[in-house]
Amino acid sequence: MQIVMSKHVPMRTCIICRAKKPKPLLLRHTCPHDHSRHLEPDLQGIGLGRGFYTCRDKACAEKIDRFRGWIHKCKGVS
Ligand SMILES: [Zn+2]
Hints:
three-stranded antiparallel sheet, two-stranded antiparallel sheet
């Protein structure tokens, strides 16, 4: 009988530094609902819609304000 790995941790890519990390180590952000210019942090990781992930390090988390790649990806999502 084959032993199955008990926990599969999903990997996500930080949109700032492109590092692949286990999802729990990343911060999730979702598209803003009010057409504001900033992604909304999704602290519980349960927000609906498209998610963007960054490292929890300040270096990456702070740069998300300058990251604009999400704008067209969020279009049409409300
Ligand atoms: Zn990063």
